[in-house]
From TrEMBL:
Feature: compositional bias, Acidic residues: 469-479
Protein name: MOT3 protein
Chief location of this protein within or outside the cell: membrane
Region annotation (Disordered) ranges: 229-248, 451-543
GO CC terms of this entry: basolateral plasma membrane
TM annotation in the entry: 21-40, 63-84, 91-110, 116-137, 181-202, 266-291, 303-325, 332-353, 359-378, 390-412, 424-448
Amino acid sequence: MGRPDPEEGHLPAPVKPPDGGWGWIVLLGCFVITGFSYAFPKAVSVYFKELMKDFHVGYSDTAWISSIMLAMLYGTGPVCSIMVNQFGCRPVMLIGGLLASSGMILASFTTNIIELYLTAGVLTGLGMALNFQPSLIMLGTYFDKRRPLANGLAAAGSPVFLSSLSPLGQVLLEKFGWRGGFLIMGGLLLNCCTCGAVMRPLDTGMKRKMEKTRDKYEAKEMLPIGGKSEEGISTTDGTKKAKKAKKKPRKGKKLLDFSIFSNRGFIIYTISKFILVLGLFVPPILLVNYAKDTGVPDTEAAFLLSIIGFIDIFARPACGMVAGLKWVRPHVAYLFSFSMLFNGLTDICSARASNYTGLVIFCVFFGISYGMVGALQFEVLMAIVGSQKFSSAIGLVLLIEAFAVLIGPPSAGRLVDALKNYEVIFYLAGSEVVLSALFLAMATYCCLNRGKKKEGSPEKNPPAGGGSDTEEAESDVQEAEEHSSDNHQPAHSTNNAVVAASEEANHVAEEQGREGGGCPAGDGEVLAQDGCNADQTVERDSF
């Protein structure tokens, strides 16, 4: 009898996600972090023309700044996972905010392109990575039933910041030059520290108090005699203290869980995302310079990114609401495939756009499709691996995607320098995105759904709406397995003490019954609630 105790080898009950409350503040912080992480590498492209003039380099050289930022955002995923599992989300995010800000501030004093790579690229990219991944993990712990909507709202931070940072960058460039712009941008990135400060972990203190109260209640229930119940409570508490004293030092958590590679859905998702990232970021990075080369004024060219951002603002929450519907959520992978297909076809069909009107139409459809992809990508991953393994899964996925980020935009920039033709780049990027969509849909249907039908029983994969557990759950299970032999003997001693006390109470009740000829008075009135005897209590406790 009693609750599952991690010290007895049972899985501890997870802290239920509140789906609101302080979670809305966490969502706001995640909104800001997502905005900086995804919009900042694209927004700095406004400064590329000036950087090319000052440092006498080509476009492919300046494109490496955005690529390095994105590569650090993705490539340091496992490092972020290890740090989060070791130190928690809040400290990691505070450090990340300081690094991101210092990177841009130092970049304003650089004298060559290599120094820009190290400051704006490596340092700022690392800082944003240490903010981005923990914010998503915290979002997953605070939301369960409303998780698709929460993911969509948090992802909307990217277009909101893109629509504001790009025009802001153009204004700063005109008034203060690129050095002043970088300095002010570095000051803005200090807001990441504020967002990290609000990432409060779910409190397990109240849960522990409730468990202690429940233990005392169970002891009183098993020992109805007043004086004996107090003795039983003290015996139970003393036994628990003895168990804690006998514990060995807690073994460290598994900092990075590679067992997720045995999940076929995770493998399919990772391959699809690698192909997707090869072409997904190319159009928005090249768009401003493409418009300038076609004769569009600088201010209007920068406004194109604002159009994408404005459409994206509404596309992401709307797509999150659709993904949260009961009849859609089990098939969210196919919705993700459709969004990628929509995005790729938009690139291909708009490759011949040669005037400002054509570019605006492209931006509208690209904003819709890009918002759908952004709203669904992490929701699909959470649905595949579950919340407990999400911290390791996202780190490994981002690491693999980092290679695609390092290949995609720089290769596109080199092709632009060689061919002087943007049409080929849009065709190539669109084809890669379409290929990723087809691969995900076909592999999901053939390898997962048909495989389940042949086996005759569904695989035990985490459901799309999997709940969130405490960060200590996994370590408690490991600890329970290792120390079950140590805890076995104290548990028996506790049960023996309870049984002995109950037998003594039963003996007293029988003697009083012989003398009084029925149910005893006084203390016996407590026993009368259980049928005027303590046999049931003794039998239940012995069992």
